[in-house]
Specification:
Elements lengths: L12 E5 L4 H12 L3 E6 L2 H13 L3 E6 L7 H10 L7 E4 L15 H28 L4 E5 L12 H21 L6 E6 L6 H6 L11 H14 L4 E5 L2
Parallel strand pairs: 1-2, 1-4, 2-3, 4-5, 5-6, 6-7
Length: 239
């Protein structure tokens, strides 16, 4: 890793959900390499510990916070614990996501659809609500939300996932409009495009994973965006 003097995110604190694998894990490692202390949030303890070991091997620092974001009060407990240790939160990266089985709208499985709503929408609202004050206390709080192209371009059989992502985007846009004129918090909505993840492999089982970009490429773009700053509501697709 490079010296602190040239790390663009030195002395910043970041929280990344879905940090145990895929884009979340890659982003957590990239943020740590850029100098941020990263709080790793996901359900699986061993997977989080593996990511933390990689961060420490790079000379970075992190804290693991194993929990299920969809459990009632779990986000509130997380925010209380973090606020007791840090005064502010510089970066909130909402990378956790759940992909239900791809089915026609008429055949959506209620339990999976509810899980998608809880993970992709309800949990993210809870995170924004509970960390809003800490984001506002940061010199330049930043919220990064990972979305999908199907949020704006509906695709057959993707309804149980796409409607939750559409609502998630609306949530972020609304939050951005609310904070734009009263504090320094800014929001970015990132569509990573085709990326080599487990979720992608489930959705496209016949696809050669080597034909799509690795999650590290998305992570590098997110860090570059955070290092350069952006306007009140930034939106981009990473191709």
């Amino acid at each position: 890793m490079t010296p602190d003097t040239v790390k663009p995110l030195a002395r910043q604190t970041a929280l990344v959900t879905g940090a145990s694998r895929g884009i979340g894990a890659a982003t957590a490692k990239a943020l740590a390499e850029a100098g941020a202390h990263v709080i790793l949030v996901a359900r699986k303890v061993k997977a989080l510990e593996a990511v933390e070991d990689e961060i420490h091997a790079l000379g970075g620092t992190s804290t693991i916070a194993p929990l299920d974001l969809t459990e009632p009060e779990s986000v509130t407990r997380l925010a209380t614990a973090i606020a007791a240790r840090w005064q502010s939160l510089d970066i909130l990266c909402l990378a956790a996501g759940y992909l239900p089985e791809l089915t026609p709208v008429s055949q959506m499985e209620p339990k999976q659809f509810n899980q998608a709503l809880l993970t992709n929408l309800v949990a993210n609202q809870a995170l924004l609500s509970n960390f809003d004050a800490m984001l506002r206390r940061a010199p330049a709080g930043r919220v990064i939300g990972l979305t999908s192209s199907v949020a704006r371009n509906p695709r057959a059989y993707w309804g149980a996932y796409s409607v939750t992502k559409a609502a998630f985007e609306n949530l972020l846009e609304t939050y951005s409009a609310e904070v734009e004129r009263i504090c320094a918090v800014r929001v970015a909505i990132i569509d990573p495009g085709a990326t080599r993840t487990e979720m992608r492999a489930r959705a496209f089982p016949g696809e050669d994973p080597q034909t799509v970009k690795p999650p590290e490429q998305v992570a590098a773009r997110i860090v570059a965006l955070l290092a350069s700053g952006f306007s009140a509501l930034h939106r981009e697709r990473i191709d």
